[in-house]
Amino acid sequence: MRTVLKIASIALCSFSYMTVNAACLKYEPEEVTLAGKLHRETFPGSPNFESVADGDERETGFYLTLAQPICTQADSGSDRQAHESVREVQLVLSKEQYASLRPQLGQQLKLRGQLFSSFTGHHHADVLLRVDP
Fold it and tell me: Is the pLDDT of residue 128 over 90?
């Protein structure tokens, strides 16, 4: 009886891990839809990425605070990292997209696009969404 319980317990844990991992979103070129509240934030940029008051450029962008946290899957052999409990996503937008989304600041919305993992000092969130036109 103990052997059966151990096997059942191991199987359940394995299934739970696979289910959680399968629910994590994939990076580009996969398309995803995210829902959340649109807002604008400013961070220090070049040259030191430390302080606007001390002379760093302002980097202002649009971000989506997600209604539900997401996770992302790592890609072996690339710099795409796995992330857990992501609640904030930086948006990558064209000038036209900034203009069309500006009136929706502070509102809940859904956006579709491709995810990628941060890789420069200009990326102020772990995960970014390149929003579809």
Answer: yes
